[in-house]
Every structure is written in C-alpha cells, then in structure tokens.
C-alpha cells in the first residue's frame, strides 16, 4: 500500500520502522495530544481552549543530496499532496539545490523630531564602544554562544528621524526577544545622550541577512501532461511567471501558492508565521512593484525554477522549547540547525509553486483540489469511517457537488444498505 493509503497509525509505524521517528517523537504523535494544559494556559492571555490543525509529512525530499521527511501543518487539503508530487518528480532529476545564509537580525532604535540632527548622528557614532558594552550586558547569554552585536549603523531618515540600527547575530535562535531587549537597553542610554526619548525600539522583520535560495532543474520531457508536450507545459509555466511579473493580482496568488508550502513548514517548526510572512512579502515588494518570488526559465530542454526567501528561522527559543510537537518535528525533519530548516522551507515553497503552476497551465487547479475538498465535504455531511472515502469518490462522479448533494448520497447509501440487510434477513 502507498503511504497515503495507510491509516494514521500505520504511517507513524512506517516512519518509526524507517528510523525517521525516534520513540519519543513517535509516541507523542501517536497520542495526538494537544499542548499540555498548563503550558497552553501560560502561553497566552485569556486562554480558553486549543485550536488544532492537521500535520502531514512531505516524504523523501532530496535537498543537496540528503533526503528529508518534512513536517507540514495546514488546513488546506491539497497542499501536502501537491508538495509530495513535486518532491517525488524533482527527486528523480537530482533533487533541490539550496544555498542558505544566516547573518543576523536587525534591531531599530528611532528618534523623531530630532533637532541639529547631523551633530546628533555624529554623537551616536562616537558611542559605538558603549553601545557594544550595553548590548553585551543586556543579553550576556548570546555572547557565550558566540553571537551578539555585530554591526551598528546610524542613518538620518527624511528630515528629522534619526535611526540607529543594530545587527545582532542570534545564532540558532530567531532572536526576537534578544534583539528587542538589546534595542531597549541601548535606546535608554541613547535617550540620555540625545536628551530626548526614543520614538520606538524594536527588531525589523525585513530579514535580508537570512536569504535562502533553492533551485531545481527538470528536463521538459518530465512535464508531459495528457496531450500537452513537456516543452509546451514548461513554456506555459514560464509565461505564467512572466505574467505575474507584470500583474500584481496574479503575483499575489502566485506567491500564495509558494506560501502554502513554506508557511506550513514554518508552522511545523514552531516558528512565528506572521514574522516570516511579513518579511517574505516585503522582499517581494523590494523593487517598488510587488513581484513573484520564484523565477522559471527554459534553458535548452530544461525547465529551471528558482526561489529566494528571507528566512530568519529559529531552532531554539520562543515557543519551540515549550511546544512538544515542535521538538518532535525537528527530530522528524532532522532539522535542529536553522540552516537546514531554511533549506526545507524554501524547498517546499518551490515544490508547492511547481505543483500549482503545472496544474494551472494544464488541466486547471479544480480537478485535483476538488477531489481533496470532497473529503472535507463528506465529513461535514456526516460521513464517518469508511463512509468518508466512499462519499469522496461518489462526489467525484457528480456533475454538481454541494453539501445537500453529499447529505442526500449518504442518506441513499444508508437506505440501500438497510434494505439489503432487510432482504437478506427475509
Ligand atoms: C491555492 O491555494 C494556491 C494557488 O492559487 C496558487 C497559484 O495560483 O499559483 C493554486
């Protein structure tokens, strides 16, 4: 049986048998447990319950020659199936190639309505050693781990804003608390030097220091679909990307298809999806016009796809240490190093984009999407157990599909079964 045809328990057994899940992660996932009540109660204000989402695995994703099982959390039925299809295809042609860098997170300390601004900018520049010392004492543990404040930059913005930017090497952490603590400590001292309070002191989610680029190369022959040649499919994928470069309505949706996969992995690794999304969209708008994040081109008989994302991901800190599943997912994904997480997130982004574009420029998106949506509809209609797959298939045969039709099919099924039992008894 194929992995997707197994029961949830059988899938976990398979992952344990292959050595991808250790006993602890296996048991945690098998129990399907929410976050321990006490942890959840202390994570947020006014906690009333927990909101769960399904998690699946994108299997055997070949990145720089290593094969990964990548956890992905999503409520959208087609995302994991689509990423898996692309991962399987790309694996046959050498896999994904990734380069990832990690340069640190920027913190900003901003003063407004600054008079005699040139002099004050110079003054801040003379304080570099003191700023370095304040940063060190604001967050000493990062120095022990080999990180800390790396660069300082003073800039005049507009007429009278003065900005001090600090680049902090956060090591394996995303580092939001670290950078914010350092910024607030430095802001306090700077306000004394400048004789005015800061307007704000906070990290920036514009994370150009952590760019991650993934590339894939497929022979066009691998893209053949029905009566469409691989060459035609590849040309149409390139054309769809060119259109997205010219049209913002399409660019946003093109990027949404990338985020489907990328953000699902960010979520699985217990990171801040809002921070990553904000950073990615600011990167897409860098040129002044919001652009598609991936590029697709035809070189001779190969289709080449490339995606660059800013990914300031953390492997420690934040909620990661307290949400047990985030740790188990790191174990499953062999991703305790943020560079590996960055590589996986970008890769699943590109894999999702390939699946979406390939479907869009051939048979359209609804065929694959709807079949998976029918499962959710079947559950909504009241199907349970084996009825779910039955109703999903029955709905696929219908010219029109909606909840009323799903309910009606279920009622008819149960009537037919009852009368069969009755006939049998008589
Ligand atoms: C749907 O979740 C994502 C797509 O709309 C992406 C795209 O259009 O490229 C299919």
UniProtKB/TrEMBL annotation:
Reactions listed under catalytic activity: (R)-mevalonate + 2 NAD(+) + CoA = (3S)-3-hydroxy-3-methylglutaryl-CoA + 2 NADH + 2 H(+)
Keywords: NAD, Oxidoreductase
SUPFAM superfamilies: NAD-binding domain of HMG-CoA reductase, Substrate-binding domain of HMG-CoA reductase
UniProt keyword annotation of Oxidoreductase present: yes
MF terms in GO: hydroxymethylglutaryl-CoA reductase (NADH) activity
Protein's pathway: Metabolic intermediate metabolism; (R)-mevalonate degradation; (S)-3-hydroxy-3-methylglutaryl-CoA from (R)-mevalonate: step 1/1
Cross-referenced PROSITE patterns: HMG_COA_REDUCTASE_3 (PS01192), HMG_COA_REDUCTASE_4 (PS50065)
The keyword NAD is annotated on this UniProt entry: yes
Enzyme Commission number, as recorded: 1.1.1.88
Enzyme kind, highest EC tier: oxidoreductase
Family that this chain belongs to: Belongs to the HMG-CoA reductase family.
Protein name: 3-hydroxy-3-methylglutaryl coenzyme A reductase
